[in-house]
Amino acid sequence: MAAYVLSQPPYQWTVLFSTPFSLNLAYLLCSTLVLCLVLIIRQDYHDFLALGPGGTPSTFTGYLRVCYLRLFTLDDPLSPPPPRREEHPADGFLLRLPPRQYPRPSVAGIAPHRQINQKPPARIYHRLRIALYKLVGDNSKLLRTGNSCFEKHGLGLFLCLCPQCPDAECHTELLHTGPAHLNATCSDTGEICHLHPSDSSMHLTLHPQDAALVISQGWGERHPLAGCPVLGIGKRLLPEGFVMVYAPQDEGQVGVLTDIVRAAGWWVGGVGLACKGEKQGVSTKGIDEHRALVRDPGSCPIG
């Protein structure tokens, strides 16, 4: 029937579709298209739910919000953030990273944004959590833990300054000279990173140089909305250097990810985070360079 209709001259199409049979055919075609669209949306919605909880509610309203945000995403999340002349600190923290010895995993979603394969066993996830808590313990005057500001749940690491941690002593020799945080993350809370329990990946904010190194060595990629202005909101939802770091596949990779978290602390707060033990294949700035952003002794940063 379709071939017959298409073979007719255009002026006869009106006559063909004016018959009851043709009207029924048109109704059938429209119904089929609507059904296909509904099935596509249904599958896309279930894929959104399958990513688990995140910064967007797991509801149909949340799904519609994500569909709108898709209009403003990066063309290539493997492209590094552009450098800015006014950046402070001027240079990144990471001097060298070993190449990641695995292919890049598949990544999906916006909010939530998750790794959907290469998920490590539970022991590696717990080893990463222990490493993050240890980093906080080694830097108890500088870091605190809490629920992620971006994700609204899950383990987050935050820069701990006197106004935010009134019970903590000021650790002035490693604090920066600027405002509460050199580079804002989520509402300027000083969030350095957060961990996703569903896939063991992390999100963090890095200096453009460090983000470029993490991407080029295969350890991560930028969030699809990193640095992208969203029409109707009037601002960028995420910093340009907002990066997903892929889940560690073995205990050796946990150490590398810990140093990437230290780099995030350097960018967000201009602070050098001590980390006992050396990480093979990773080179970072020395402690003297960490102290290049020192505040006058005896003073406390103002939030």
What does this entry look like structurally?
33% of the residues lie in helices and 12% in strands. The chain contains eight helices and ten strands. A hairpin with a 6-residue loop joins strand 6 and strand 7. The longest helix has 31 residues. The termini are far apart.
Topology at a glance:
Layout: H1 2-7, H2 13-17, H3 20-50, H4 60-69, E1 94-96, E2 107-109, E3 113-115, H5 122-138, E4 143-147, E5 155-159, E6 191-195, E7 202-205, H6 208-216, E8 220-222, E9 242-245, H7 251-269, E10 283-284, H8 287-290
Antiparallel strand pairs: 1-10, 2-3, 4-5, 5-6, 6-7, 7-9, 8-9
Helix pairs in contact: 5-7
**Strand elements, count:** 10
Order of helices and strands: HHHHEEEHEEEEHEEHEH
Strand order of the largest sheet: 4-5-6-7-9-8
Report the average pLDDT across residues.
79
User: How would a textbook summarize the main sheet?
Assistant: 6 strands, antiparallel
Helix content: 25-40%
Oligomer: single chain
Strand content: 5-15%
The end-to-end distance, rounded to whole angstroms, is 73 Å
| Structural class assignment | alpha+beta
What sort of overall outline do the alpha carbons produce when their principal axes are compared?
elongated
Low-confidence stretches: 162-180, 277-281, 286-303
Rg over CA atoms: 25 Å
Query: What is the count of DSSP helices, taking H or I runs of 4+ residues?
Result: 8
